[in-house]
Design a protein that fits this description.
The structure holds three protein chains of three kinds. Chain A is α+β, with helices and mostly antiparallel strands. Chain A contains four helices and eleven strands; from the N terminus they run βββαβββαββαβββα. By secondary structure, chain B is mainly beta. Classes of the chains: A alpha+beta, B mainly beta, C alpha+beta. At the A-C interface, β7 and α4 of A face β9, β14 and β38 of C.
Chain lengths: 172, 87, 926
């Protein structure tokens, strides 16, 4: 059984299942510029563009879809900015976050993958949705050294085992 | 496996996409039975370029129309469809 | 081994043989870097296998992946790899190798006697047996199955993992010969992201056979790597697909060896900006009588064994050629101390031969005779007269075939090079080019075969001779595609790498046309055979897919339920106690729900939150029932149609707030529904102001059903639960929940939806309260009994993609205003024909009702419908079923027969309403 906080650690790489966090889908269907301005004012930073992230201490926004942002963390300041142009929907119960850390995380994500995780194609701060070993996952290049993967909860254990198996191949 | 230039994500592997149907078989919800069934069951099926509805299902989930050559598999154009994409 | 030390294969200078391996149980020693073929030859072993059909003795013909003869099984147990080419297997300590297709032993093979039956086994033998009486085929079959074959597939599971990895590069270079090395280094120096792929264990390609002091492959590889390039050895580019996508199969360990990291092989999925094919040439054999005997070897292969491995494949050698390249082989043999008995050149003139080598012009080999591991003599036709030579090896070169497989897989065209008698890569539709010798094969004029056709083999692996090609021609097989299928030429594991061109030129000769006019067969991936496990990757285990775990998996597991796979999900089917079986457990659970209360995990249901001012408008498009009229806090049953008017899913829809709805749908159809809603919302109605979010996994769902459910829930939430089809938010076990009063079982029931991360607390609280009240958890089997008795349809059962709302008795719920997807399709006359299959109930008058059984009025009649689900009355007993029956709505009361010929079961039944239990819904009426 894999519990939140469970981690696999090798000399160079760690795979850690992060504790559950509030996650919301923010979908905007109307007056995008006005919503963007209101959100910018409320959060103190602009809505990230497609396949990018932006954050402050309390809230991270990741844009994986043209009209939908994944909001990690506090949404209290957002709720009042949406009006009849957008909606927030809680989705955190269905997503497990993994932190893949160490110099080989880009290589690890090529296992069973189809997405170019090289620095040039997926720079720090970038976000991308793709498929790994037939599972739809969302990736956030959090730093040089670490990536956060958002995995459907039902597949979390399967993917964790898949990544564990692949660890000995890294750097070979 | 194709490489499809998603209008929102750039070039991505076909694995991330799903094919829906050709544009000539899209049924307007307001269409009468004859028109709707004609669209569903009578396809042009050209030996050449055709317009197809695809979705980046395992990527940005957005829909698009591919102009694809049915013999060479060359994709000559990709056009986003759906709610106005936000800049 | 040959008794005569001056004959047969041997090592030129022995001394560094440090690696022990076994071949058919005998231990031999090899040098580091030896292939199995090199090591066997070094140890004097020339006989390596028996042929596919005639069990003829076969040796080593090549030094590369094109080897048709020397196929072996390496490794043991689940790691055994049959049909491994001895020329493509690097010896490692402890390697265990078995020869194939021989019994009782390689040297003495009983089935070789079948070779005497060769006249009866010629081209088209299989086809011809089918035209005879069937009993003939039955007689041949056992004989063929025993006689014909290669290695045996292992029966144990493969203990190793197989990796599948994505690769991306600007330039992919295939082949590390002089041309490939140069192209890769130039690209790397220009700043491109480079991948260089080499199927051999060391880089160099033809340089390993013909070294060039000006080129240092190892140094160039180091330079490419230093510039950030990736160099993959033991890696074969085996498939070239659309849009410059290539599959590479990489050996991380030799076949049969225990891999260092648990992974035997890796399949690279590479997307390349540009592909450079530096794939080189494969030498053509020469047809003559008995040209398949050990001791007949390709000229360049001989040179490779001599120069690269220090092995002499023979000590008295005849060389037969139609080109200049074989003269280099003569040179190499002379330098290594072998005797070149004769150089037979089919041409009238050639270059200067090495000193001491006698060259015969206008000379072609016609036959050879052999001993066990080598030849005895070679007979040639020289200028019209025959001459024999005492020789143990003949090195042959019939010209060269450019390796254009990847170019052709990429959709390329070939052009004919008359001088080389070869097809060379031409135009290509992809960003790809061929360079090096594959583009410039050396001149090699055509030379007519001189020996008897019967034993002049063309396809060595499938035992196809020139006579077979001639026979196919005589019997009317004119096209190259027909020839291939009739003779099986080019259809073995080597896919005709050494045989296709020889056969094609014979066919062209018969047709009286040029080779390009005769045509070519299609090149298909993989270039060399690929292990099935590599294609399966991690999916080789768990039936190829990840199991989707429900949030409460571990909590259920603690109760040791019977699990049921449901799509990718696993759900509890029943929770047996006291040694109960499935049937008893399910019945007990269902009875508990009917009489007290039960709880069940319904987390896998499709769930969508739809919000925004146009949420109802979208739902009224997707759902065939009304939605907009729902009051806040109310819900209803709904179903969805395809555009053609047939039902494809059902569920419930709830108005959570003014502009927010929850839509549920079936587990099995959840992904399809997500896709459908997205299509409708984004593709058809992008103008709608709404948001649709898939919350299937966000919420765990717990069904609490039974006459006691309301009291249990009220006590847990401290609030009066909503009335039937009502919704209320609540708090249970300190956790916020949605309470939906919906009944699938037919009892008063609730679905409690809770954020999945907090589901365990809520389940535990409900389970404790339910058990305290005398209830119990129930699984899918009990749920099935309950819903059948209630007459509720299930997607995949009664909703089979062919039923309309009217067929299922749901017509009255359709949105009268129309406007939903499928409304137009539903107006077609055939969809309301009275003879359609309608949902009915069946009550048994005699015997249990077989599920899936056919409904008939009397024996011999065509079926008028079928049973979709069979069960029993939960409390009273007695077999009941749901069925789809022609015109069934109007046939209640009729007696029918249910017959299941496949199960050998029959029952007499009476047609009834499908609602066996509480048809008026009084059990949950408020």
């Amino acid at each position: 059984m894999i519990l939140p906080g469970n981690a696999t650690v090798t000399e160079t790489t760690s795979i850690t299942m992060l504790p559950a966090a509030p996650l919301h889908a923010l979908e905007i269907w109307g007056n995008p510029q006005a919503v963007a301005t209101r959100v910018h004012k409320a959060l103190g930073f602009a809505l990230p563009v497609m396949n990018r992230s932006a954050n402050n201490a309390a809230t991270t926004l990741l844009r994986f879809e043209p009209t939908v942002w994944l909001v990690e963390g506090d949404v209290s300041v957002l709720a009042d900015t949406l009006g009849d142009d957008a909606a927030l929907t809680a989705i955190g119960g269905g997503i497990v976050r993994f932190r893949l850390a160490g110099p080989h995380w880009r290589e690890l994500l090529l296992e069973g993958g189809v997405f170019d995780t090289s620095l040039a194609a997926f720079p720090v701060g970038a976000a991308a949705a793709t498929v790994i070993d037939h599972v739809g996952v969302r990736l956030w290049a959090q730093s040089e050294d670490a990536c956060v993967a958002y995995v459907p909860a039902s597949y979390a254990q399967g993917l964790h085992h898949f990544w564990d198996d692949a660890l000995p191949l890294l750097g070979t | 496996m194709y490489q499809i230039a998603c209008p929102h994500c750039g070039p991505r592997a076909q694995t991330e996409f799903t094919y829906e149907r050709t544009t000539d078989s899209v049924v307007d919800p307001a269409a009468d039975a004859h028109t709707a069934m004609h669209a569903l069951y009578t396809r042009a099926n050209p030996m050449g370029l055709d317009d197809e509805v695809w979705r980046h299902t395992y990527g940005c989930r957005a829909w698009m129309v591919l102009t694809r050559h049915r013999v060479t598999h060359e994709i000559t154009a990709v056009k986003a469809i759906g709610p106005e994409a936000l800049a | 081994m040959s008794a005569d030390k001056t004959r047969g294969p041997t090592r030129a200078k022995t001394g560094e043989e440090t690696i022990a391996f076994t071949f058919d149980g005998t231990t031999y020693h090899a040098r580091p870097g030896d292939t199995l073929a090199a090591a066997l030859l070094a140890n004097g072993v020339g006989l390596v296998g028996r042929s596919f059909k005639y069990h003829r003795p076969r040796g080593i013909m090549t030094a590369g992946i094109e080897e048709p003869n020397a196929l072996v099984t390496v490794g043991k147990g689940g790691r055994a790899e049959p049909n491994t080419r001895a020329t493509d297997l690097f010896v490692y300590p402890g390697m265990m190798v078995q020869s194939q297709n021989r019994w009782p032993s390689l040297a003495f093979d009983v089935a070789a006697i079948f070779g005497l039956a060769a006249p009866a086994l010629g081209a088209g033998f299989y086809y011809k047996t089918f035209f005879g009486p069937a009993k003939h085929w039955l007689r041949y079959e056992a004989f063929i199955r025993r006689a014909a074959g290669l290695g045996n597939a292992p029966t144990e599971p493969d203990p190793d993992n197989f990796s599948q990895t994505a690769g991306f590069c600007d330039v992919l270079v295939v082949g590390s010969g002089p041309a490939g090395l140069k192209a890769a280094l130039e690209a790397a120096e220009a700043g491109s992201r480079v991948m260089l792929v080499e199927q051999d264990a060391v880089p160099g390609g033809s340089l390993l056979r013909d070294p060039d002091p000006a080129i240092d492959p190892a140094a160039m590889v180091e330079r490419i790597k230093a510039l950030g390039g990736k160099v993959l050895l033991r890696t074969t580019a085996s498939g070239y697909w659309d849009h410059n996508f290539l599959t590479l199969s990489q050996r991380l360990a030799e076949p049969g060896a225990v891999p260092p990291h648990g992974f035997a092989q890796r399949l690279w999925h590479v997307r390349a900006g540009r592909v450079v094919l530096a794939t080189g040439l494969i030498e053509r054999p020469v047809p003559f009588a008995n040209n398949d005997h050990p001791g007949v070897m390709l000229s360049q292969a001989v040179r490779s064994y001599v120069r690269r491995w220090g092995v002499l494949p023979g000590q008295r050698v005849v060389i037969a050629t139609n080109n200049d390249d074989a003269y280099l082989t003569a040179q190499a043999l002379v330098e290594a101390g072998a005797e070149v008995v004769a150089l037979l050149d089919a041409r009238a003139s050639g270059p200067a031969a090495p000193a001491g080598v006698t060259v015969y012009h206008d000379a072609r080999p016609s036959s050879v005779t052999g001993r066990k591991h080598a030849l005895r003599n070679v007979t040639a036709v020289i200028g019209g007269s025959e001459q024999s030579f005492d020789a143990d090896l003949i090195a042959v070169s019939g010209g060269f075939v450019p390796v254009s497989h990847l170019h052709m897989q990429a959709g390329g065209k070939l052009t004919w090079n008359e001088e080389a008698q070869a097809f060379v890569p031409g135009e290509t539709p992809q960003v790809c080019e061929t360079i090096g010798s594959a583009l410039h094969p050396p001149a090699a004029p055509a030379a007519a075969p001189a020996g008897k056709a019967k034993t002049s083999f063309v396809d060595f692996q499938n035992d196809v001779s020139l006579a077979d090609i001639d026979l196919a021609w005589q019997e009317g097989y004119r096209s190259v595609e027909h020839l291939k299928r009739y003779t099986t030429l080019g259809m073995a594991t080597d896919q005709g790498k050494t045989s296709n061109m020889t056969a094609l030129s014979r066919l062209a000769e018969k047709q009286g046309v040029t080779v390009p006019q005769a045509g070519l067969t299609t090149f298909r991936p993989p270039y060399t055979p690929v292990t099935m496990g590599l294609l399966a990757g991690a999916g080789a285990r768990n039936a190829g897919a990840h199991v989707r775990r429900i949030p409460l998996h571990d909590l259920h597991e603690a109760q040791e339920p019977i699990w049921q796979p449901l799509g990718y999900w696993f759900r509890p089917r029943a929770y047996p106690v006291d040694g109960e079986g499935l049937v008893a457990a399910a019945l007990r659970e269902a009875q508990t729900v009917r009489t007290v209360a039960g709880l069940s995990d319904v987390s896998t249901l499709g769930k969508f939150e739809v919000s925004g001012p146009d949420a109802a408008a979208l739902l009224e498009l997707v759902c065939a029932t009304t939605v907009g009229k729902l009051a806040v806090g109310r819900g209803r049953y709904t179903f969805m149609l395809r555009e053609d008017g047939f039902v494809f899913d059902d569920g419930t829809v709830w108005r959570l707030a003014e502009n927010r709805y929850l839509l549920t749908s079936s587990t099995g159809g959840a992904d399809r529904m997500a896709h459908h809603i997205s299509y409708v919302r984004n593709s058809l109605r992008p103008d709608l102001k709404c948001s649709v979010v898939n919350v299937q996994e966000h919420y765990a769902g717990i069904a609490l059903a039974g006459p006691g459910s309301r009291r249990i829930l009220a006590a847990l939430t401290g609030a009066e639960p909503p009335r039937h089809m009502g919704y209320a938010p609540g708090v249970l076990a300190g956790t916020p929940v949605h309470v939906l009063a919906a009944s699938y079982s037919g009892e008063r029931a609730f679905e409690i939806h809770v954020e999945a991360t907090h589901a365990a607390e809520v389940w535990r609280a409900i389970e404790a309260a339910t058990r305290a009240a005398g209830g119990a958890p129930y699984g899918l089997e009990a749920m099935e009994l309950l819903r059948i008795e209630k007459g509720h349809v299930v997607v995949g059962g009664e909703v089979d993609g062919r039923s309309t709302p009217h067929d299922l008795g749901l017509g009255g719920m359709l949105n009268k205003a129309g406007g939903f997807i499928g409304a137009a399709g539903l107006t077609r006359p055939a969809l309301s024909a009275p003879s359609r299959n309608n949902l009915v109930g069946l009550v048994s008058l005699e015997g249990p009702i077989p599920e899936g059984g056919m409904l008939i009025q009397r024996a011999g009649q065509s079926p008028q419908g079928h049973v979709t689900a069979a069960a029993r009355r939960i409390l009273e007993g007695g077999a009941i079923a749901l069925a789809l029956l022609e015109g069934g709505h109007k046939r209640h009361g009729e007696e029918l027969i249910v017959t299941s010929p496949t199960r050998g079961e029959k029952a007499r039944v009476r047609v009834t309403s499908p609602h066996f239990y509480d048809p008026a819904g009084e059990r949950y009426r408020d």
